[in-house]
Predict the structure.
Amino acid sequence: MSRTSTRLPAIIVVFTVALAGAASAQTDPTKCHKEVVKNLAKYKKTYLKAVSKCLDGKNEGKLPPNTSCPDAAANLKISKVALQAPQKVAAKCSLSDLTTTLGFRDDCQYEAATTGVEGATCSPMTVASAADVASCLLCWKGAELAEFIAILYASHASEVCGGALDETSPVCSDLDCATPLPDQRNLSGTSSGGEEFCQRGIAKAGIKYLLTREKDLEQCALKGGTSADCLSASLNPTVALKLQKAQLKKDGAIKTACGNRDPAPAAPFCCRTGMGNSCSVATSRDDCTMNLGGTVQEGKTCNAGNCNPVTGGNKTITWWNVCPESDCTGTLTKLQDLIDCVDSTVDDAIVPELLCLQFRGNGGSDWPCPAADGP
């Protein structure tokens, strides 16, 4: 789990201090657990959609290029839910329900994190009330959600994670593999032929897939199912069918949005600096516009002093060359590789992390965290 700025964690810390109210005198652990899951799900949905809307706005040119996402509008939506969630959990749960009956920690050390948001912000949080438990979970889940956004929006990963993609990130859980880092820039082209259209499709489909998969598994877990039970096609065929449909829908949506684009850390461009198609070789798009006074032309390269369209092979989408949540082997060269990376990120990393934070039965063995991170 231990994966610009301390924006989100700072908000949550304030909430932790502000929300120390006692839970109602009589509580029901089953209803309590459902309340925890419901409010964390609302937070998750709000966070993912608010930040992605901000990033889409930058790519589409609807926001100033130097806007930092999440922007003020996104943070307002996120903070509203983050403020309400601990209050609602405290109204349905006692501290004993959460820590004794349901197995949530009586501290906030869900992992032996060292630095970054998880080690410096989440782990030290005090757990003295039901509201504190919810605030603690919001912090840990926020780091996972930020990581997921950074993976989906590869060209804005550094921005989303506050400038660091390893365990020192002040916002994100660390990415296992962040090298080579894709070009960090705003994409362009809102038509079906542009990179931005493909990027928006990847993010929209990936987010919907994560929300659907976790919701289906949460409902199974709330009925007492373990991870092994809920993921068994023979024991839970209905759940298996829902998960399969969600996956196929996600695959189709990405293919529709991206067409013949394949992932590449650096998409080709040409720096037009003279009359007609005359060009100069630029080291980056910023070098072209800021130092050479040129105009960036996407999908072209500067050959013999002229901007010429790239020939042969598919167009590209600025994305990861190695799947960030993996064993750091193999490269992503085709669109199907990108889709497979989204699958493995959701199925094997992010959703298991989110679920293991919410379902602590049998010391965490019913819904274990991914082995690389631990309980």
Summary: Residues 1-25 have pLDDT under 50 and may be disordered. The chain has two domains: 7-262+319-364, 269-309. The chain is about 50% helix and 5% strand. The first strand starts at residue 261 and ends at 264.
